[in-house]
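Entry:
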Amino acid sequence: MTTLADPVPGGRPGEVERATALSGELSGRGVHGIVLAYVDTAGIGRVKAIPTAKLPSAAAWGVGMSPVFDTFLADDSIVTTDALGSPDGDLRLYPDLGGLVVLSGQPGWAWAPVDRIAQEGDPHPGCSRTFLRHLVTDSARRGIAFRASIEIEWTVGQGPSAAGELLPATTGPAYGATRQVELSDCAADLLAALAEQGVDVDQLHPEYAAGQFEVSVGALDPVAAADRSVLVRQTIRAVARRHGLVVSFAPAVVTEGVGNGGHLHLSAWRDGVNLHAGGDRRHGMTAEAESFAAGVLTRLPALTAVTAPSPASYLRLKPSRWAGAFTAWGRETREAGVRVITGTTGLQDRSANIEIKPVDLAANPYLALGCVIAAGLDGMARSTPLPQETTGNPELLDTGQARARGVRRLPTSLGEAVAEFRADEVLRTALGPVLTDAVIAVREGEIAAVDGLDDAGIAAAYRWRY
């Protein structure tokens, strides 16, 4: 269970004792090391690792790591803001013991997400997990809870070619039985590893592009859902490697065709009741659910700076690829930016949610979920009306139809997305000045890093970064 309290020097109440007991238990199970994991602003998973015996010390005093990683780019170069990017300073990484998991795909290891605080004990304003945790906690005080999950798509390869290209491990048809058979052993081991790690899997199947697969997992509170997204990707990579395979979660492994997505599923709840089901508005939504969806839809262009944060994201975010490239919504409309999912008869009260489509796995999941929730809450606070529904392909609407529905194309480049983000006061306020400046600086750094590259060069630059 996610720990909601901020870490403090000396440890959260009872944590050191709990860590001591866990350390002995883990050692008895043959666990030698613990991966302490977080995600930086560029969407790259960063880690430190400790011997299992050091877990009580980590719970009490954290583990040191420089704050400079908040302004790392995907290629490990560094940009700066007025508060971040300096070689000075230190942070303490505190493991959330409620999220600690023994890694089935990496024998001898356990894994835990971390929150980061300053040496003086204050929460680090650049910590994306703390940002999301505070947002969720504040919402709970106002009676609103959330359930979330993140789809994970990846491409499986035999290994990179001499030119760094990914050689698909299977070339069977999209969603085809051939592909499932050819990678059956690896997929079965992945399901076993996820089950042993307590991850409930809804679906695992071949996807559209060559060598592409998708896994859908059960919904949790947003912080735990973001943790799970990081854990599942770590597990996919580890299991694939044990089978002699490599994986890429990059938004665009190649320049053409369908890229890897990371669609967000989110539902808002009040007093244990799903606001997206049983209401008197369209498709069973309540008035609050409609306004929540409208808030997300309104800010979707600015959100792309967080949900589609790589130059490679815009090789994927194109019409007719089910990437959600328009500010449109519709029930089960997979070309719309916001897809309303009602669930099948008998399950609506549990499964109704909205899916945010223009999201890929270059996104920091804590930032992405936090900003989407902030946009939705703003819509609820303003009672923002949800415009007319769009069915079919939004690209086929004429100018008048599109204007009447508020449908427009999402940014076609990271530069356009950053401009939208700069102008969005709601998202910037939610993130705070330190995280806001980090997002802008890192995105502008990524833009500069690929200046002069064509689409093939951009895809190659990020193929093995995610």
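Residues 46 and 141 are 32 Å apart (CA to CA).
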